[in-house]
Amino acid sequence: MNKSARLTPQQRAWNWYDWANSAFYTTTLAVLFAPFMITVASHAAGCADAEDTCRNPVSVFGLHLAAGSLPSYLISFATISSALVLPVVGAFVDRSPRKKWHMAGYGWAASACAALLFFMQGSQWQLAAFAIVAASVLGGCSLVAYYAILVDISTEDERDAVSSRGWAWGYLGGGLLLLINLVMVQAHSNFGLSKELAVRLSLLSAAVWWAAFTIIPLVRLRNYAPTREAQTGSLMQRSFGQLFTTLKDMRAFPHTLTFLIAYLFYNDGIQTVIGSASTYGSKQLGMSQTVLISTILMIQFVAFGGALAFGRLAQRFGSYRPILWGTVGWMVIVVLAVFVPRGSVALFIALGVLIAIVMGGTQALSRSFFSLLIPRGREGEYFALYNACERGTSWFGTLLFGVVFQVTGSYRPAIVALIVFFILGAIFLLRVDPRRGIEEAGNRVPGQAFEALRPAS
C-alpha cells in the first residue's frame, strides 16, 4: 500500500475540520439561507406571496434593494469583503506559532454569527443580513489557517491524498447534516413544527455542528513553529506590508501565478454551475422540488467518492493532469446539459452524478496542487490570495449566466455559455509547467508522480 494512502493521526485530525465547516456551506449557504431570506425580506417589503419575484424594496444603509435580490447582494458583498480581508489574515497566520487556534477561533466566531440566523423570522431580516456576511468572511479567515496547516502535516508525496480525503470527509459530513435537515423541513408537521421553525432550527444546527466538531481538530492537532521570523511594527504594518511583498514577489513564481489565474476561471465556472443547477432544473427542465432535493443529496454523497477517486488518480499521475481532465469533464457537462429534454428525471440525475464525480476531485486537487507551488513558510499569504481571488471573482459566472438568459430568454444558452470559463481555465492550465513551478517554489516534486508532472514535449 502506498505510504500516501495511509493518513497519520495529524492528518486524520485535520480532516475533521472539513467535516465541521461543510455543514454551513451546504445546509446554510447552498440550500436554505437564500430562499428563506427572500421569504422573510418579502414579508417585510409587503409582498403577500413572498416569492423571489418580489421587487418591492427593503432599505439597507439607505440603499433600496429588491427583496427578491437581497441574498445575492449580501453574498456578493461578503465575497468582496473577503477578498480585502483574507490577505491580511494570511500574512499574520504565517508568522504565528498557533495556526490551529486561528483556525478554531475564526471558525467559532463564524459559527456564532451563523447561529444568529435562527432569529430570522416573520419580517425580521436585518440581523440575519449582518450574520451571513460576518459568518462568510470569518469562515474564509478560518479556512486560510486550515489550508496553511495542510503543508505542516503532510509531505509533497502525501499532499494530494490528504487534501482529497479531507474534501471527501467534508462532503460526507455536510451531506449527512443536510439529509437530516431536509427530512425535518419536508416533514415538519410530523415533528410538530411549523415549516419556518424547521428551517430556523436547521440553520442553527449547521452553526452548532460547525462549532462542536471544530473541537476535535483543535484538541488533536499540534501547533507548528513558523518558518519565517516575525516582523517589527504594528499588526497592520506587518500584514499589509507583507501583502504588498507577496503580490510583488509572485512575479518570481510565474507558474504559481498562471495556475492561480487558471483556477479563477475554472472555479468560477464550477461555482456557477453548482449555483445555477437548481434554477436550470426547475425553470428549464421542469423538475419537481422532490427531484431537486434528491439530486442535491445524491451529489453530496457521490462527491465523497469522486474526491477519493481523484485522489487515487493523483497518486498515479500527479495532481496536475487530473485537474486538467476534470476541467475537460466540466466542459462536457455543460454541453450535455443543453440536450437534456424537459421532464427527463433520469438524465437530470445522471448529469448530477457526473457533476458530483468531477466537483470534489477538481476542488480537492486544486488545493493540494497549489500548496506545491507555494514557497515554504508563506502558505497563509498564498492561500489567502487563493481564497480571496476565488471569492472576489466568483460573481463573473453568475453575471454571464444572467445576461445570456436576459438576452435569449432561455436557460439552455445561459448554461452552455459557462463553457468559456472552463476553456479559459484549460488554456492557462496548459501554460503551467508543473515540475518547474514546484521546483521554483523550493519544493520537491512528488516522487510517485515525477514522470506525470514532467510536461509533455
Oligomer: single chain
Which topology of the largest domain does CATH recognise?
Growth Hormone, Chain: A
Record field, number of beta strands: 2
Derived from helix and strand composition plus strand pairing, the structural class reads mainly alpha
- Average pLDDT confidence is 85
- Succession of helices and strands: HEEHHHHHHHHHHHHHHHH
Radius of gyration: 22 Å
Pfam families: ATG22
GO molecular function, one term: transmembrane transporter activity
InterPro entries: Atg22-like, ATG22/LtaA_families, MFS_dom, MFS_trans_sf
Protein name: MFS transporter
Any overview of this molecule?
Pfam families: ATG22. Residues 255-457 form the Major facilitator superfamily (MFS) profile domain. Keywords: Membrane, Transmembrane, Transmembrane helix, Transport. The protein is mostly helical and 457 residues long. It folds into two domains: 9-225, Growth Hormone, Chain: A (Up-down Bundle); 240-445, Growth Hormone, Chain: A (Up-down Bundle). The protein contains 17 helices and two strands. A hairpin with a 2-residue loop joins strand 1 and strand 2 (63-66). Helix 2 packs parallel to helix 4. Residues 450-457 have low confidence and may be disordered.
Give a brief description.
By secondary structure, the protein is an all-alpha fold.
SSE inventory with pairings:
Layout: H1 9-45, E1 57-60, E2 63-66, H2 70-94, H3 99-115, H4 126-153, H5 159-186, H6 195-220, H7 235-249, H8 254-284, H9 289-317, H10 320-338, H11 345-372, H12 379-392, H13 396-408, H14 411-416, H15 419-430, H16 434-440, H17 450-453
Antiparallel strand pairs: 1-2
Helix pairs in contact: 1-4, 1-5, 1-6, 2-4, 2-7, 2-12, 3-4, 3-6, 4-12, 5-6, 5-9, 5-11, 8-11, 8-13, 8-15, 9-11, 10-11, 10-15
